[in-house]
Amino acid sequence: MSFAVGDRVRVLTMNPPGHNRAPRYVRGHVGEVVRLVGDGRFPDESAVIGDAARREDIVTVAFAGPELWGPDSHTGDRVHVDLFVSYLEAVGERSDGGRTR
Predict the structure, then answer these.
(1) What are 32-58's pLDDT values in tens digits?
(2) Dihedral of the alpha carbons of 70, 73, 78, 80, in degrees to the nearest 10
């Protein structure tokens, strides 16, 4: 699945064996796609099979401070994380009011 800027996404809650590039502190949390980075060698496979690993799209997701750190976090805080799209699922409404694909 691909995403567009403005899409709301949730990072999958996962704990796979081996290498993974989704930080634990964002897993299960909802953010907004703010940039399309392009593609990169998927590290979960690359760590095992090297250059034969598939390429996958990467997006930058912005998370509000309270989403990650709780209600006592400063509401203006935002954390941006580059994530492979297979770590994400679409949720709810887009930030511009449209529906997420």
Answers:
(1) 999 999 888 777 666 667 677 778 899
(2) -50
**Neighbouring-strand partners of residue 93:** 99
* CATH number of the domain bearing residue 53: 2.30.30.50
Residue 81 domain-assigned?
yes
Those residues whose C-beta lies under 8 Å from the C-beta of residue 71, and which sit 6 or more positions away, are none
Which domain does 72 fall in, by range?
A: 8-90
Q: How many residues does the chain have?
A: 101
State the total domains in the chain: 1
d(CA 59, CA 50): 22
Please compute the mean of the pLDDT values over residues 20-32 and round it to a whole number: 94
This prediction has a pTM of: 0.82
